[in-house]
């Protein structure tokens, strides 16, 4: 039944909220067993979306049946628009109707949308239930599955409502990534590359040589996922509630979020990882313009993103974009604002990003105007 | 301007989430100063209800103006029904529209409803803003202002959705309690008496002799509030997330919540503290019936509750009550259920309550049937 039993374990060290991330192929088939070992006696509710349901729900449910894990299943529509208040409310209500208790678990089977939404739900029902994440996209495996950030969007912006709620267990089955579209796989890859760009130039170099193995599902994929989870876990362990250096993880994200906002989260035009890819290039270009980042490093970033097929310029986003004022508003409304001062992640070159709180609006506006005008 | 500057300080020790509770008369007039000292530079949004607005908002706003604390004000309807999803959503949206940041503060001016709702809102907007509580009822001062429990009700029960979110500061102005109706004051007093009944027989004895000073606003009132806050703070510090002995604070509450549910939270018929008063009496009577609690202790509890004018019997609740099955359902759906086993706070006498997980449905049903039949 189980094809392979090897899994890499990355421990996220957060005191009494510590948890393991298991990384490997075909973990979905062992999910029931892992959950019943780690949360003995817990009932579960699986939350998934219409797309993932068709691909992976049956495997998961069979593994729950085999391990005797009691479960119900709730299915939400696929897509970023599912991260909204109405669906959040319905899920909370459905879980209460199932009479699940604090020690029971919400199991998120899906990408970032399902994970963020389910995590928020599990964080507030009875003031916090157990939470298990089974991320089915590369983005979710290397990013949202580590760190306990959960949330939904508001008409004022992305992820503006949520809680920090750490999972009890994360199962990153790297074989489910075979079912991703090339576009979605690439989008997740932007976050993998980010860990190199933040503080790990050797990893970025390794990616430049090994990205093809990651995309084709070779052993490099598991290595890259594990390395990314370890990198994020290290940052999160040092700053769980994002009061300081955790902000480094937002490299490219302030620009990226403003681009996502500018297309009203229409994923046909731009998905999160694409926004991050363009955003990271913009962060290097802006840093270069401020005399911080060598031109050759910016060029390497652009070349690598282009090599894997990710967008690197705003003008690659199809359709009309809003005027500069809208962008400035979106940036000002980004969570990563403190006392009216913009917090930007700037860089002195590949692998030497830092948190900068001195960016003022004028040079940023001039930089963006030029980029939008192209 | 400031009539008196003395305040008792009770520190709630929760590591990096520790915070002080200031207790004293006329603290409302110093609120701006205290907030600006403790959260320098934070903007604020005051959340209050229609009733409290008329009585105390002006004093608070003037103190904010005097101290240069920037504020907006949001007003919700008074009453338990305000603790619902729709209002929660509106408040989150309003605060985002005000563009407040993570370091800014939600200031709850009101009783438990305003505190629980505002605390939940402040716990999820931008994944957690600063939170300041200015409880204006005795109940809120001695109970909900300590411990970080926040939440709203669901059609499935009370406080079923929420988060643990600790305030940065609590200001318990004991002079505002002069404006409470006798009924509301008494309701809060039930929670004061509870601290004696849980584990502090000397305090219960002191209350038996000193309750009149507490009701009339003598120095005993500040002493009782401070003692209650200290008692709760000690329990909370030992068990922040209610995994163990914090459940002791629910003495009388499983019964009480079921009574509140039975009247559909209609506060004309029953307010929380009245439910707790009857619930504590029922807990002693049930414990007595199980051979745990001496009959004279039950009598003393009843006598004291009657002396202060609190209800002690289910048949004092006006109107028709639902059948026994509804009560059993409400009790089973109470949060304090673990793996299908009822968690009850039972007692071996005044000041010797304990967490009991062995209560089974049959004797409980028989006990309640008898009480309902009267």
TrEMBL record, chains A, B:
Binds 1 divalent metal cation per subunit. Can use either Co(2+) or Zn(2+). Its cofactor is Zn(2+); NAD(+); Co(2+). NAD(+) binds at residues 112-116, 136-137, 149, 158. Gene3D superfamilies: 3.40.50.1970, Dehydroquinate synthase-like - alpha domain (1.20.1090.10). Residues 74-186 form the 3-dehydroquinate synthase N-terminal domain. Its main location: cytoplasm. Belongs to the sugar phosphate cyclases superfamily. Dehydroquinate synthase family. The lineage of its organism: Bacteria, Pseudomonadati, Pseudomonadota, Alphaproteobacteria, Hyphomicrobiales. The keyword NAD applies. Residues 188-337 form the 3-dehydroquinate synthase C-terminal domain. One of its GO terms (cellular component) is cytoplasm. This is 3-dehydroquinate synthase. It comes from the Bacteria. Pfam families: DHQ_synthase, DHQS_C. It is found in: Cytoplasm. InterPro entries: Dehydroquinate_synthase (IPR050071), DHQ_synth_AroB (IPR016037), DHQ_synth_fam (IPR030963), DHQS/DOIS_N (IPR030960), DHQS_C (IPR056179). It catalyses: 7-phospho-2-dehydro-3-deoxy-D-arabino-heptonate = 3-dehydroquinate + phosphate. Pathway: Metabolic intermediate biosynthesis; chorismate biosynthesis; chorismate from D-erythrose 4-phosphate and phosphoenolpyruvate: step 2/7. GO terms for molecular function: 3-dehydroquinate synthase activity; metal ion binding; nucleotide binding. Zn(2+) binds at residues 191, 253, 272. The gene is aroB. Its EC number is 4.2.3.4. NCBIfam families: aroB (TIGR01357). It is an enzyme of class 4 (lyase). Catalyzes the conversion of 3-deoxy-D-arabino-heptulosonate 7-phosphate (DAHP) to dehydroquinate (DHQ). Keywords: Amino-acid biosynthesis, Aromatic amino acid biosynthesis, Cobalt, Cytoplasm, Lyase, Metal-binding, NAD, Nucleotide-binding, Zinc. GO terms for biological process: amino acid biosynthetic process; aromatic amino acid family biosynthetic process; chorismate biosynthetic process.
